[in-house]
Specification:
Elements lengths: L6 E4 L7 H11 L6 E6 L4 H12 L2 E8 L2 E7 L3
Parallel strand pairs: 1-2
Antiparallel strand pairs: 2-4, 3-4
Length: about 80
Amino acid sequence: MPLVADQKIDCLGLFCPMPVVKTREALRRMTVGQILEMASDDPGSEADMKSWSARTGNELLGIERDGSAFRFFVRKTR
C-alpha cells in the first residue's frame, strides 16, 4: 500500500541542515499521526533523516529514491 502524505514539502536544492530544519518546522504545524512527505536531493539527507527521526521519536515510515532525489515519509508521533 503506497504511503499517502497529509502534507508535502520540497527541499530539493537545499543542503544540510535545511531539509531537517524544514521537516521539523512542517511537523510542528501538523497533528499527531499525520504523515509528511519531504523531497530532498542532498546526498547526506538519508543519514540525517534517520538520525533525526531516532533522536526526536518521529517515525520514519519510508524512503523512496529516484536517481539523486529522495522522498522521505515521516509520521508525527508527539
